[in-house]
Amino acid sequence: MNPGTDCERVRLQLMAALDGETVPDVMDQRSDARRHLSSCSSCERWLKNLESLNGRFHAASYPRSQVDLCAGVDARIRRPDASPTRTHRLWLIGALVIAWRALQLMFDLPLPMLHPLVPLAAAVAALWQISGDPLAIETSAPELQKRGI
């Protein structure tokens, strides 16, 4: 048997036992682990360090959250958006394009370079409204409830 593999196997068994995990054939593995610990000083030091570290983690006090953030987040998710809907914004962009075209037809506007830029800007604005912010994470309360959050 390879000593490194034997040490790894025993260390995994000891970590599982320290975590309270149930392992089949516990009695056989405990005696095997004890036998290995009596012959391997490296694993014995490792176990002492692990027990010390585990004790420090159990003795540590963790700060409790003073404020429950869930209610505030839930209220913001459920709050209806007060800004105009996308449909209203798209109608506004369409109306501006039509007004621009009517202005072009009624008057001889200077700066012919400006004529194609206004419809292009309107198309970009419409696409931005349709796609939304590509970096935003959008979710809804029913989706969060379905995930159990």
Q: What is the number of helices?
A: 7
Helix content: 55-70%
Global structural class: mainly alpha
The percent range for strand residues is under 5%
The largest β sheet comes out as: none
Question: How confident overall, as mean pLDDT?
Answer: 79
First and last CA, distance: 49 Å
> What's the overall geometry?
elongated
Domain module tally: 2
Q: Which runs of at least 5 residues are low in confidence (pLDDT < 50)? A: none
Q: Tell me the number of strands.
A: 0
SSE pattern, N- to C-terminal: HHHHHHH
Q: Using the CA coordinates, give the radius of gyration.
A: 34 Å
Topology (elements, then pairings):
Layout: H1 3-18, H2 26-39, H3 41-59, H4 70-78, H5 86-106, H6 117-131, H7 141-147
Helix pairs in contact: 1-2, 1-3, 2-3, 5-6
Could you explain the architecture of this structure?
The chain has 149 residues and is mainly alpha-helical. The chain folds into two domains: 3-59, no CATH class; 70-147, no CATH class. It is built from seven helices and no strands. The protein has helices spanning 3-18, 26-39, 41-59, 70-78, 86-106, 117-131, 141-147. It starts with a helix and ends with a helix. The mean pLDDT is 79.
Characteristics:
149 residues, mainly alpha, 7 helices, elongated
